[in-house]
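Here is one chain, start to finish.
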Amino acid sequence: MTETGDLAVSVGMDAATKAPPPPDGFAEMNRKGEYWRMTGPYFERARENGVEQAFLAAGKHANALGLVHGGMLSAFLDGLLFQAVKRTIGERSAITLHLSVDFLAAAKIGEWVIGESTVTRESPDIVFVEGRVHSAGRDVARASGLFKPTRPAGS
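Its structure:
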């Protein structure tokens, strides 16, 4: 968000536009990296199994048709799946080996886009994870991924 906490301005809406509040239980995340700062803010909510995150779809996320760009949804899913992996592997990090995304419907500007992900299987070398994105009651995309945990520095 902006320094004044104005969500509408931080997602590229006019200052006079009142952004809808995050869905119940969601709080702003502190994501690392310039890409996430440029495309955010992002929000998360506690979930017993896996991860749940959201963002408010804005003009900066749109394609030429005025819908949320597939690349934005793919990047969101990659980060969403990674967060579920991170909860499973602890302090180590991981890299994406494979990401498969199926687009099911469009997400529209001004809607909250919500994603959830869950680790489905873990081996010493690969973590399997699945996720889905929905918006305004529509399933927007689903994804599956393979992530390779990295070794801690010095090991």
